[in-house]
């Protein structure tokens, strides 16, 4: 789906006036719960990389309109087992997927640095948006279940918007919903390309949260990096404010 980016008529003010946040593996420790759910379905999480590749492919097909959300995850699970050499009926794949989802949902939890950071942002009065590459309404259920809904002024979900990060349209749509131009908006996420670089290329301030710590490589130009959301307030107050002064 191709959508034109919205046009902003407000000028940059040279200050940070809004914050956008990725959800999974930025706010929610999704990988831990997802690995545990995969292990419950196949006995181990050794095929995690294969699972991620097949998931990314099927989510892309769903966003492109090739698959319906209601059936995408079951078809994905069927394709995953086929890649492992086990041919399942769609009925059996659906049964296993439902079991995986139960374990996944039970394991959802926030990183400990999330609520203090969100409380600080709320105290500043900055509008906040969530931008997620999730494919369906389960993401809104997750956000509500974990008590995040009250913090967000807007929630942008790729499966609803019709495009995903790093496409600039979803970033611009979030900025439009907050009423703040991209140049005055920060986006924080755990994926270097989809989140930080995508936001930078959309005219925003891209911040990569790398929870595993420094990798020894050079950070791409125009980006900032943190290892915890506890570092975000200082970054917003000091580094980014100085950069736009």
TrEMBL record:
Source organism, top-level taxon: Bacteria
Annotated InterPro entries: HAD-like_hydrolase, HAD-like_sf, HAD-SF_hydro_IA, HAD_sf
GO molecular function: hydrolase activity
EC number: 3.1.3.-
Required cofactor names: Mg(2+)
Keyword line: Hydrolase, Magnesium
Pfam family, one: Hydrolase
UniProt KW Zinc keyword: no
Name the UniProt record assigns to this protein: HAD family hydrolase
């Amino acid at each position: 789906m191709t959508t034109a980016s919205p046009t902003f008529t407000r000028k940059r003010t040279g200050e940070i006036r809004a914050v956008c946040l990725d959800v999974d593996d930025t706010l929610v420790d999704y990988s831990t719960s997802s690995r545990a759910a995969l292990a419950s379905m196949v006995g181990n999480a050794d095929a995690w990389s294969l699972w991620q590749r097949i998931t990314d492919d099927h989510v892309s097909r769903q966003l492109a309109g090739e698959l319906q959300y209601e059936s995408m995850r079951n078809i994905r699970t069927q394709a995953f087992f086929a890649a492992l050499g086990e041919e399942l009926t769609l009925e059996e794949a659906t049964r296993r997927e439902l079991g995986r989802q139960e374990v996944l949902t039970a394991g959802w939890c926030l990183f400990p640095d999330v609520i203090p950071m969100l409380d600080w942002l709320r105290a500043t009065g900055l509008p906040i948006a969530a931008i997620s590459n999730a494919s369906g309404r389960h993401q809104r259920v997750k956000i509500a279940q974990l008590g995040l809904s009250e913090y967000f002024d807007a929630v942008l979900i790729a499966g609803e918007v019709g495009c995903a990060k790093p496409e600039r349209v979803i970033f611009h749509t979030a900025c439009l919903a907050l009423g703040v131009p991209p140049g005055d908006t920060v986006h924080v996420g755990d994926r270097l390309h989809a989140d930080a670089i995508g936001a930078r290329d959309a005219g925003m301030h891209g911040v990569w949260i790398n929870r595993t710590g420094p990798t020894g490589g050079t950070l791409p130009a125009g980006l900032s990096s943190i290892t915890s959301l506890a570092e975000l307030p200082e970054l917003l107050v000091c580094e980014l404010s100085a950069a736009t002064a």
